[in-house]
Amino acid sequence: MHKVLHDKSIAKGLLLGGTRISKMKGNENLSGRVYHEIKSLILRNEIMPGQKLHHQDLSDRLGVSRTPVREALSRLVQEGYVNLLPNRGFVCKVIGMQEAEELYELRECLEVFCVEKAILKISDESLERLGQKIDLYGHDTQRRFTRERLIYDRDIHLEIAEIAGNKTIKKNLVQVFERIILKRKTDSLYDLARGVSAHQEHLSLVDAMRRRHVSEAVKIIRKHIHDGKRNVLMDLRQRQEFRKSQVIDQMTEIY
């Protein structure tokens, strides 16, 4: 009798334990889905750098409770996409000068390695894929600067990482592009001439890779990244100066 009760108790415990585990996994899946959806909103510029993130607004928009939203925002803070500021709460992170410099330095290290390795493995088929992506970027330089051009540029560089065959480096490059390239504002402060010169650099790079000229290709990719870095830092400085002028104007109106 005692053994039967004991066995039933164990079975009940296992059932309840399984229910708890299933519930925990469900919560984790919901939190993960909300995380990816908020991150996607940031990367699509539907949530802009500097914008305050309200729990309730995001809950209503995504059709979930505030708990998974709060968990997702905390995860985005850890990954550098969102800031948690005193008296303000969660705010979409604005790329700073130091972070931009560090990310471009990391990008240079990763991409130089990728170019060197890709030249050793490149084939006619991979050259054709790379050329197609470069063509997409080139056609877009005739239009107004939008987020699509940033994506075309990212795809060119990730294709080179794909040819190089190092999945870990490619994953890190994806994170670099997410944190600085795709979070940039695409407004009138962008230097339109940069798109044309970047396209020429892409063409020169693929030509050097086709000829298996490693030193030339490395020189081109370094210059390409340095020029991009200079353009981004100039853009950030202009925005900082603009924000300062707005603050000064507001203080002048008050006094």
Structural notes for this entry:
By secondary structure, the chain is mainly alpha-helical. Helix content is 78%, strand content 3%. The chain folds into 2 domains: 2-92, Orthogonal Bundle (Arc Repressor Mutant, subunit A); 97-246, Four Helix Bundle (Hemerythrin (Met), subunit A), CATH 1.20.120.530. A two-stranded antiparallel sheet has the order 1-2. β1 (82-85) and β2 (89-92) form a beta hairpin. The longest helix has 42 residues, at 2-43. Residues 19-25 have low confidence and may be disordered.
How does the SSE layout of this entry go?
Blueprint (H helix, E strand, L loop, with lengths): L1 H42 L11 H8 L3 H13 L3 E4 L3 E4 L4 H25 L2 H17 L6 H18 L2 H15 L10 H19 L3 H41 L1
Antiparallel strand pairs: 1-2
Helix pairs in contact: 1-3, 4-6, 4-7, 4-9, 5-6, 5-8, 6-7, 8-9
Mean pLDDT: 84
Label the CATH architecture of the largest domain: Up-down Bundle
Which segments are poorly predicted (pLDDT under 50) over 5 or more consecutive residues?
Answer: 19-25
Number of domains: 2
The CATH homologous superfamily of the largest domain is termed GntR ligand-binding domain-like
CATH topology of the largest domain: Four Helix Bundle (Hemerythrin (Met), subunit A)
Proportion of residues in β-strands:
under 5%
Provide key terms for this protein.
about 260 residues, mainly alpha, Arc Repressor Mutant, subunit A, Four Helix Bundle (Hemerythrin (Met), subunit A), 2 domains, two-stranded antiparallel sheet, 9 helices, about 80% helix
